[in-house]
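Reproducibility note. Readers wishing to regenerate the assembly model reported in the main text can use the exact inputs given here. Chain order matters: entities are listed in the order in which they were concatenated for prediction.
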Amino acid sequence: MHELSIAMGIVKIAEDETAKAKSNTVTKIELEIGTLSGVEIDSLNFVWDAAVKNTVLEKAEKQIFSIKGKGKCADCDTEFNMENIYDCCPNCGSNFKGILKGKELRVKALEVI
Amino acid sequence: MCGTCGCGSDSNGPTILKPGEHKHEHGEHHHHDGHSHSHNEHHHNHDGHSHNPKHKILEIEQNILQNNQVLAARNRGFFEAKNIFALNLVSSPGSGKTSILERTLADLKNEISFYVIEGDQQTLNDANRIDALDIPVIQINTGKGCHLESDMVFDAVKQLDIKNDAILMIENVGNLVCPSMFDLGENKRIVIISTTEGEDKPIKYPDMFHTSDICIINKIDLLPYLNIDIQKLKDYALQVNPNLQFFEISATTGEGMDAWYKWLKKNII
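Running the prediction on these inputs yields the following structure tokens for the assembly.
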């Protein structure tokens, strides 16, 4: 369950940034999580309450933007949507590709008071 | 080139300046052609949702794994400076990570300096197995944790007192999911799969195979008793990661270990 580590990482970022802004409460947090990032949003939701307890995020509304996977074939340059990290190029069948989108794991913004 | 906006400041080539000098003033050229905005003016009404004006928005855009990656980069720099070849061994529990290590260390310890970091949730068992071979070893017990992180390796490395020109083997917690996301600063990641695990493991747990450089297929001595198609396993693995390099070995009989040893020796010189 590495989502707990991920949640703790989010808490650390929120604590640091909130302190820098001389605030003490986060009212909303926006996250960007790619579908190929290896983080299950359901699992993250599951550990969230335990991870944020007694932190600046305890009362924060959490908004997650899920980012769909997109790849570009290294052999024929076709851009294609990726469901799985092992999807091959739909045009030429090559497994050599660059992942353009879907690996995101970011704290996009915090709303603080 | 101007470090602020990337515009060329002199068409005749590089500009040589002393500290404190800057050839063009940024106030003079307009980075926002045609539009100007002041931050007080724009309301955060993007995406059709609005925020309470008393609240402050911090647009931080920070990678959640940044902390781990920064410390991993620090580890990597340390390894490079001391010519330490660091390997991160990952697999599901029971595929033979420790047995491969034991055999490798026993066979090569007179030629190469080895150091080992063992990661497990509990017990010193694995460290004791390595210690029995007179190899410097440190055990990290993660407690409830399911993977090693770069700060744990950082702390362990400080205690190991590694000499130059060595190989550091980091045996991760047995888990084919979580360790894939955490860079430890290793030179190469080695995923180990045993013949008893089934040929479709690579596509069932693709992240680990996607992030690894080497795939060791262990327990090939059991092949006569199993219903597994090794070529199919490799095809699945290559579908996930076309750059994977394979070694087929048996840590029990020693079959196939020579190619693996050759690869290790090549990387330490």
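We highlight two features of this model. Chain B has a mean pLDDT of 85. Residues 66-81 of chain B form the longest helix (16 residues).
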